[in-house]
Amino acid sequence: MSTRWYPRYVRGNPQLRIFLPDFWMIVKKPEQPLPANKVLFKVPVQMTGYDVKNYLEKIYKIPVMQVKTRVVCGEIKRAKSTKPYLIKEDDYREAIVDLPKHVQFEYPDLYGGERVKLEDEIEKIEKQFEFIKKREKRRTFSENRHNVPGWFGV
Fold this sequence. Notes:
Nucleotide-bd_a/b_plait_sf, alpha+beta, Alpha-Beta Plaits, structural constituent of ribosome, Ribosomal_uL23/eL15/eS24_sf, 2 domains
């Protein structure tokens, strides 16, 4: 599974004890809810269903019943520049992994109660940003009026 070249073992030298696979897997929350024993992963296109099954069973010791995969075409977006051209994101593969019926999977709650705090922080930062914009606008206005005192405003 790994294409890395490890140095040849010479007697007396320490052995490499870390397994670094070439593949990555991302747990993805599906748009439509899945049963509790099914999990959706985002994997590279080169990874097959057999690779996904081995990856989960050998590294994480998760019992896998079945793996279904499909290739998803990358999104096409306009470039954020003056030149009109399109940029296509890389394709990826989605793998739906069926676990045994007694195994339940829950998506992790990454934010928990902190989500409300984060939203408050975002609002506060947006207010600061608006204030900075207004101050910058006032400053550029006063730059156009050289040698005129601030109290002499229109």
